[in-house]
Amino acid sequence: MKTLDGCITQLKKYLASKSLKFFAKTYFKHYCKNSFAPFHLELFDYLTEITMQRGRQLAIAAPRGNAKSSIISLFYVLWCICFGHEKCMILFSSTRQQSERLLAHIKKKSAQMKNSRETFPRFANRRIHDGEMMR
Fold first, then answer.
1. In contact, 25 and 32? CB cutoff 8 Å
2. C-alpha 2: how far from its chain's center?
3. Which of 30, 76, 103, 129 is packed most tightly, with the most Cβ within 10 A?
């Protein structure tokens, strides 16, 4: 028999699998304290759409400080890993240091999510090495 908490967790997980915005608001509350700006809402919608409808491409340009890296290089990457939306992801940045910083952030958050094996069992068998994440 399922508990109410178990049902709520499963519902959250299902909704998060379908919506990058819901995933971010649910699992990254400390990043998403304020309401999203229209640019963020569009970005969530575009990223979800290109993931669910294969064969589409997206180029994004916005001024510094508009949370592009947080949304694309953290929320989106982890969303794809958690729910198996992508088999392989490549992260590009302007400099090696920036790429390493972004990857370190992904590693840190994935390690935290690994502690929640019931919710995200895909993390249970992940090994993390310098400069890469491996299955």
1. yes
2. 28
3. 76
DSSP state of 95: S
- In sequence order, the 6+-apart residues with CB closer than 8 A to the CB of 25 are 32
Task: Write the Ramachandran bin of 8: left for phi over 0, alpha for psi from -120 to 50, otherwise beta.
Answer: alpha
Q: What pLDDT, in 10s, does the model give residues 50-94?
A: 888 877 777 887 778 777 778 888 899 889 988 888 877 777 788
Write the CB contacts of 87 (distance below 8 Å, at least 6 apart in sequence).
Answer: none
Length of the chain (residues): 135
Alpha helices in 53-87 (DSSP H): 68, 77-83
pLDDT in tens, 90-111: 777 888 888 888 888 888 887 7
Inter-residue long-range contacts of 7-14, CB under 8 Å, 24+ positions, other chains counted: 9/118, 9/119, 13/119
Q: Where are the alpha helices (DSSP H) in 19-135?
A: 20-27, 38-52, 68, 77-83, 96-114
